[in-house]
Amino acid sequence: MLKRNRVVITGMGILAPNGIGNDEFWESLVTGRSGIGPITLFDASDLKSRIAGEVKNFDPHDYIEPELKPKRMARHTQFAYAATMLALEDAGLEISEADLPSPTPIIVGVSTSAMDIIERSISDFDRRGGNGMSPTAVGALTPQAAANAIADRIGARAHAATVSSACPSGLDAVALAADMVRSGAAELAIAGGADAPITKHTFAAFIATGLSSCRNREPEKASRPFDIERDSGVISEGAGMFVLETLERAEARGAKIYLEINGYARQRDRGPDDPASGLADSMRLALANAGRSENDIDYISAYGPGHPVLDAAEVRYIKEVFGERAYSIPISSIKGVTGNPLAAGGPLQLAACALSFRDQIIAPTTNCELPDPECDLDFVPLRARKAKLDCILMNVRGLGGSASSLVVSRPNHR
Fold first, then answer.
1. pLDDT of residue 413
2. Domains 7-252 and 264-409 share a fold
3. Measured distance CA(296)–CA(10) in Å, rounded
4. d(Cα 338, Cα 368) in Å, to the nearest integer?
5. Across the strands, what pairs with 104?
6. Best CA proximity match to 84, nearest among 164, 148, 41, 141
7. Contact 188/181 with Cβ under 8 angstroms?
8. What H or E segment, with its residue span, contains residue 117?
9. DSSP states of 120-189 as a string?
10. Given CB 3.0 to 4.6 Å as the disulfide criterion, which of 165, 219, 236, 318 pairs with 339?
11. Which of 1, 16, 14, 2 has the alpha carbon at shortest distance from 240?
12. Domain map of the chain by residue range?
């Protein structure tokens, strides 16, 4: 019988609208301090929705070596690279053959790709014609640019891969990396997700599809998961990258361990008229793959984007899977604070789960002031809650009907 390694997370790097780094990110989640505000990355004055979750006080030169020409990189590539450097530092690892074995998989989930580079290139072409195009644009705008930039820094022993499956992309990337570590294909992997969709044309497209709240006068209250007054989610940006290792390797080097990855599954919705139905199947399969039952789950980190239809649908399928026990499980969505950073959303949830295990605290569902009658579960509204947390289920759902669920546990609790 083939040995199956236990997979743990030992390093995290977070860039989010509500904070850069684990401490600032977690403090804002626990206190409900929102990262949503007026758009500053472009002039949004002529748009119906003018708010988003921008990563604040981010200077790529603080994280990326000058010789790598960070200004030529797409914003999401800058985020992914910076988050990786933070994760390696958090894990106590250097970029060396001693610390990063060969092969080292680098797996990055992206949803919208390099929209800033694409839109800038179109503008350059319109103004100056074909001869005015930047010679670095093609390399910067490809979907794999983020993983390649990280792999280039690590060297020849790195294997780069990109996952694109809408909002679940970042979580799917982590799960793919976990499979490689579990099977023995790699001792250590770096994985996560990044997105930077706050550009004029891209943002206008989200508005046209009804995916951006128009609560412009109160941006900090615009993202309202499960609340009766929610009008839609709030688009945001960010990155979350992780160091994954075998439990044996992590223990041997004395690394701190945030959590263990137990089981994962991805499914599609049962049909276009049944949104988020894939979550019912992904939750069941993730529990089965983790060797867990519904009774083992102490908390559910919900997708909860603040969308009227999707929030209610996720609640419906949680009830379908958990039955009466759904009413006694605490559930929360961090998107009241972070907004929806697409491929980075799952990684930000995963980081929040890791910190919940560390502190035995559930981050609240910020802005859930009056729950929708269709959303009648325990959403930990407004205030953080102390709890005994040994096993958590996470949900992420994306445009096109993709759904992913992950089961994780506190170190030494399996």
1. 56
2. yes
3. 23
4. 14
5. 158
6. 148
7. yes
8. helix 115-128
9. HHHHHHHHH-GGGS-TTHHHHHSTTHHHHHHHHHH-TTEEEEEE--STTHHHHHHHHHHHHHHHTS-SEE
10. 236
11. 14
12. 7-252, 264-409
- Cα distance between residue 345 and residue 197, in whole Å: 13
Distance CA 283, CA 298 (A): 14
- Cα within 13 Å of Cα(225), Cβ side: 30
Q: Cβ(396)–Cβ(382) under 8 Å?
A: no
Q: Domain 7-252 is classified in which CATH homologous superfamily?
A: Thiolase/Chalcone synthase (3.40.47.10)
Beta strand spans in 169-307 (E): 188-195, 238-246, 259-268, 299-301
Residues whose CB is less than 8 angstroms from the CB of residue 266 and which lie 6 or more positions away in sequence, other chains included: 165, 168, 172, 175, 282, 402, 403, 404, 405
pLDDT tens for the 414 residues of the chain, in order? 466 899 999 999 999 999 999 999 999 999 999 999 999 999 999 999 999 999 999 999 999 999 999 999 999 999 999 999 999 999 999 999 889 998 999 999 999 989 999 888 888 888 888 777 788 888 888 889 999 999 999 998 899 999 999 999 999 999 999 999 999 999 999 999 999 999 999 999 999 999 999 999 999 999 999 999 999 999 999 999 999 999 999 999 999 999 999 999 999 999 888 999 999 999 999 999 999 999 999 999 999 999 999 999 999 999 999 999 999 999 999 999 999 999 999 999 999 999 999 999 999 999 999 999 999 999 999 999 999 999 999 999 998 899 999 999 999 755
Cα–Cα distance for residue pair 56/18, rounded to 1 Å: 8
Determine contact, residues 229/221, Cβ cutoff 8 Å: no
The second-level CATH assignment, the architecture, of 264-409 is 3-Layer(aba) Sandwich (3.40)
Picking from 215, 203, 265, the residue whose alpha carbon sits closest to that of residue 404 is 265
Both tokens of 295, joined, read: 């009774």
* Phi then psi dihedrals of residue 9, to 5 deg: -105, 130
What CA–CA distance (Å, rounded) separates 184 from 4? 7
Residue in the structure block whose two tokens are 């992997």: 189
CA distance 118 to 342: 18
CB contact at 8 A, 113 and 144: no
Assessment of whether the complete model's pTM goes beyond 0.85 = yes
356, 332 in Cβ contact below 8 A?
Answer: no
Tell me whether strands 259-268 and 299-301 are parallel, antiparallel or unpaired.
unpaired
